[in-house]
Amino acid sequence: MEKLYEGKAKILYPEGENLRVYFKDEATAFNAQKRGLIPGKGVVNNKVSAFLFRHLEAHGVKTHFLKELSDREMLVRRVEILPLEVILRYRAAGSFARRYGVEEGTPLQAPLVEFSLKNDALGDPLICENAILALGLAEEGELERVKATALRVGELLRGFFAQRGLDLWDFKLEFGRYGGEILLADEISPDTMRLRKDGEPLDKDRFRRDLGGVEEAYQEVLRRVLGG
Ligand code: UDP
C-alpha cells in the first residue's frame, strides 16, 4: 500500500476515507540530530495511544481515534492537522527549564499551555497566541477550543497516571480540523510525554540522555497503562 506520509516515528497510509497509522521503532531527539532504535517502541506507543484515546473519549474528549488494527497500527480519522505543538506543563523540564533557568522538576504554580510552530527546518520555535492568529494558523475560536481541551486532557491524564504510580510532568498534543470540529490527533505516548516514577524517567528522556534501560521503561509504561 502506498504511503501518504512518513514521519520520524510513524507512517501514514490512506485507508478509504480514513488513515492507517503505523508506529515505528525508530527514535529521534533534539530535532532529529540524535537517532536510534528502541525495539518494541512502536507496539508500546500504538497500544498506549489507543488506550489513552479511548479513556479520553470515555470522558468526553473528541479524538481522531477509531480503532486498533494490529499491534503497531491504528485507524484514525483523516484530519487537517493544525501546524502547532501544544505543550502542557506541570513541572519545569527540557526546553522550559533551560529557557527560564529553573531546576528540572520544579512544580509550576498552575498548569501551563505553550505552543510551538510545527516546523522542523525552524526547530519548532515557541509561538505566542497573537502570532498564531496573525499568521492565520488557527482562528480565535479554534485556539480557545484547543486550550480548553488541552487543559481537560491534562487533568484526565494526570489523574490516570497518578493512579498508576506515575507523575506526568509535561506532554505534547496535536489537534486537527474535522468537519467543523477540532479533534485531538497524533499520538499520546512515552515519546511525547515526561513520566516519572519516584523521580526516575520512564520516557524518551532515557533515550535523549543515554540513561540506559530505554526498552524496559517503555514496557513498564505499557504494563502500568494496561494494568490499571
Ligand atoms: N515534545 C514532543 N515533540 C516535540 C517537542 C516536545 O513530543 O517535538 C514533548 C516532550 O517529550 C516533552 C514535552 O513535549 O514531554 C515538552 O518538551 P520540551 O519543550 O521540554 O522539549 P524538549 O526539550 O524535550 O525537546
What topology does this entry show?
Elements: E1 5-6, E2 10-15, E3 18-23, E4 26-29, E5 34-37, H1 41-58, E6 65-70, E7 73-77, E8 80-81, E9 84-91, H2 94-100, E10 107-117, H3 129-134, H4 140-163, E11 167-178, E12 181-185, E13 193-197, E14 200-201, H5 205-208, H6 214-227
Antiparallel strand pairs: 1-2, 2-3, 3-7, 4-5, 6-7, 8-11, 9-10, 9-11, 11-12, 11-13, 13-14
Helix pairs in contact: 1-6
The structure holds uridine-5'-diphosphate.
Protein model, in words:
- The chain is α+β, with helices and mostly antiparallel strands and 228 residues long.
- The protein has 2 domains: 5-77, Phosphorylase Kinase, domain 1, CATH 3.30.200; 80-214, ATP-grasp fold, B domain (D-amino Acid Aminotransferase, Chain A, domain 1).
- Helix content is 32%, strand content 34%.
- Strands 8, 9, 10, 11, 12, 13 and 14 form a 7-stranded antiparallel beta sheet that branches. Strands 1-2-3-7-6 form a 5-stranded antiparallel beta sheet. Strands 4-5 form a two-stranded antiparallel ribbon.
- A hairpin with a 3-residue loop joins β1 (5-6) and β2.
- The mean pLDDT is 97.
- Uridine-5'-diphosphate binds at residues 85, 87, 93-96, 124, 170-172, 192-194, 204.
